[in-house]
Design brief:
Length: 511
Amino acid sequence: MIASIKALVVVLAIATLVFRLARPIAARFSSDLDFSRRRNVWFALTSVAFLSPNFWVFSLVAIPMLIWAGRKDPNPVALYLLLLHVIPNTPVRIPTIWINELFDLNNFRLLSLCVLIPAAWRVKRSGTAAHRPGFTSMDYLLLAFGILQVLIYVPANLSNQVPLPDSPTNVLRRAFLFFLDVYVLYYVVSRICTSRRAIADAMATFCLVSILMALIGVFESLRHWLLYDDIVVRWGTSVISAYSYTRDGFVRAQASAGHALALGYLLAIAFGFWLYFRSQMKSAWSRIGGALVLWLGLAATYSRGPWIGAAAIYMAFAALGPRALSRTFKAMVIAILLLGALSLTPTGERLINAVPFLGGKAGDSSVTYRHRLAERSWELIQEHPFLGDGSVLFKMEGLRQGEGIIDLVNTYAEMALFYGLVGLSLLVGFIMIAFFKVYGAARKVARSDPDFGILGISLAASILGVLLMLENTSFILALPIMFYVLAGLAAAYARVGNSTTRNPSGDAHPL
């Protein structure tokens, strides 16, 4: 407990500094009352987490607080993003009496039950067309993908797993969890954010908490001290790939994200959002400082996929925006100069050595494993190309690692293996429609409102960055959450942008 108290003091000290510096900026996108309430809830839940002996004690405090805050907040999406990683995503099995297993509970699902579902119910009861736009092609594709997930049984990715038969209970469980984990999230984000202020508020809140996590991550890497690790140990839970704490002599920071990769994905997307918000900063120090903190946090994760994703987002933002040719050239020159300067430092040289296409040799075993996985995956996809094979993992035992899992480090291959090219097409089609919607709306809006156009470009660039990062990871941790959040924000932006184009005086400058 002494270790937890020490860690809590450090976390609260860093958070106090970040919230204080962010308050004037956040005031542009949310009211002071909303900012204070969200901040106080974050402080309270963080303190309870570090002092609670288990997840259930934390939940006793968190559930009423989340329900209260969700009702009070005019933008529950912003509240959700702020609290998404208030604690590590530690799964805890719900005790049962009449059945063998219900489902695991974690912070994501607490937020969905206490914040998103009540918000969805309010949207459903709302009589305004802005909140109830009807089903779109994105809704139908996502629901079709969900039906496929419900119908195809995929056993757990565990060593010595016995292939148990599926059951009606399992089907109902999968249907409920898809609704809880996926559709409610997309539905609320796409329907609640009915103005540019609400969209910007959600994005700004995510940037705020990501900068906070980045600073915590830098501290963890410098001090070789994972501040949230004691919570996981004390609660007797485990997070995915929690064994991977170090690489090439670096401590891989993870903050409250539960894993270095998860933190890296969050920071890469936050950097995409920051490319818009930097234009809102009057001070050059603020513009540079935010990006610098996010990149220092990325470096502290020592995760190659998020580095490449963040760089791709930067290039995409330049290429998709106005003056694309000159901005892309400038972005490439800046990237080359930064890499050159980084290579002159001992730490920078070690970081560059971790990236294979820059000539790095660190993690060669990981690259070899990926090649073997790609070859075997392609062989198995050809056996069941259309609807996949839910039991395909039993045919891949030769790829099981010492940690006891088959690490499917490519989401596209993972989806094609389990759900076939049909499932892969549904998922990719869903996010591609989101991309074209937001990009098309941003191009139209930019003619009358360049600032709002840039906001849309930052969303489009972030989606492209996520599509690239999916090639280098499984669909786990924080990435699927942000995948659906980005899709929801894109759908909301397209609706607001098209409405603004048709009625320029309706929502021209609400910020």
